[in-house]
Amino acid sequence: MWKLLIADDEPKIRQGLRNGLDWNALDIEVIGEAEDGEVALEIAKASHPDIALVDICMPFLDGLQFIEKLNEICENCIVIVITGHDKFSYAQKAVRLKVFDFLLKPVTKEQLRSVLIKAKEELDKVYSKNKYFNWAKQQLEKNRGLLKQQFLNEWINGSLSYVQIEEQLRFFDMNLDGEYGMIMIKVAERIAVDEIGEEWDKDLLIYAIKNIVEELLAEWQPNIIFEDSKSNIVAILPIEELKEWVHLGVKLESTVEHYLKQTVLVSQAKMQNGIKSIPSVYHSLLQDIKNKSNSTPIVMLARKYIDTHYFKENLSLIEVAKEMQISATYLSRLLKQEIGLSFIDYLTQVRIKKAMELMNDPSIKLYEVAQRVGYSSQHYFSTAFKRILGMPPGEYRKGKKAIAK
After folding, report:
1. pLDDT exceeds 60 at position 332
2. Which residues partner with 55 through β-bridges?
3. Whether the Cβ atoms of residue 300 and residue 191 lie closer than 8 Å to each other
4. Angle of the 343-358 helix axis to the 378-389 helix axis, nearest 10
């Protein structure tokens, strides 16, 4: 039943309104009567009426003041004003307050019945509209995760304009201010970690990896973690501590391998131009993952071992070959055939790439950078750096500072 409130300072009027109609037949319940605006407001706060019959001229809080406050409490409440001929000058202000209708005293039963039937019809429309809106809202919330994943996939593939990206970020309440990096994780399907590696359903495995990634990156907030259209796990996260960021990929690899007995390929990069560079960084990581996955299992595992242990000062071809259980000569030949680099050239590239990331943090001294990427001597580090980039590390860092300014 619809709930109705009567507010009039005249007892006879209130009694006449209450007793004048068969309220049950109209499917309306009179929830209260008030002799002034303040009492009416208290009843409205407690009961939230659907319809209010209001006299304009009431003590303490007049009808118009009451209606104004009622609109704040009951947004969809239908207000019907009851007034005398000499008080009809209030009508203009009442119209501004979105009053549904006016009744002039004395009110007949037919007038009251007619306006209440119209009020009920309006309430039915509002209720149906709200019901549909609430249903649509529920469906949106139900599919919010899928919509978000669709948006993220369109974004990384460069299918959206900057305006569309900004709109979607606001819609999903995603704030990506500051420096961010991207990590991509792919299951190395051609490799089993060891003999006890489990056979996984692909979807279940990706779900399990995503859970591990979410747990490990819980402190890197706000982050975005999702599955792309190629079944890769992609994470976009803020970079606050470069020292930790540089080793994050290795940490993810080892954790997945430890808990799931599965080898994964990981690639990561800092986004130099903020969120605008997301599509280009994504495709760069995609190509890196593709290159790694196209290798034979031995080369893939060898590269993975080098990527994980590059910081060891004495890391050698013999050590890596021993881990792969093949001869150093054979491994050297495979590396040259598949990636076009010797062991030392590949190791140097990995080290210099990691060094470049660390050098973005001005608080890390060059000798510290050298030590962190496997060089005991800053001189050897500078020589290797210049061989790869054509300039010494000090000059490179100065150039980065100049660009930043």
Report:
1. yes
2. 82
3. yes
4. 100
Where is pLDDT greater, at 273 or 337? 337
Q: Do 11 and 81 sit in the same domain of this protein?
A: yes
Task: Dump strand ranges (E) for 72-216.
Answer: 78-83, 101-104, 180-187
Give the C-alpha separation, 29 to 264, whole Å. 66
pLDDT level of residue 404 (50, 70, 90 thresholds) = very low
Question: What pairs with residue 224 in β-bridges?
Answer: 236
DSSP state, residue 248: H
DSSP 198: P
Cα–Cα distance, 299 to 301 (Å, whole number): 5
CATH number at residue 217: 3.30.70.270
Range(s) of the domain holding residue 398 = 295-405
Q: Is the pLDDT of residue 222 over 90?
A: no
- Per-residue pLDDT tens digits for 144-178: 778 888 888 888 888 888 888 888 888 888 877 77
**In the block, residue with structure tokens 């975005």:** 224
Note whether 266 and 185 are within 8 A (CB): yes
Q: Are residues 184 and 290 in the same domain?
A: yes
Q: Are residues 13 and 118 in the same domain?
A: yes
Pairwise CA distance, residues 246 & 242, whole Å = 6
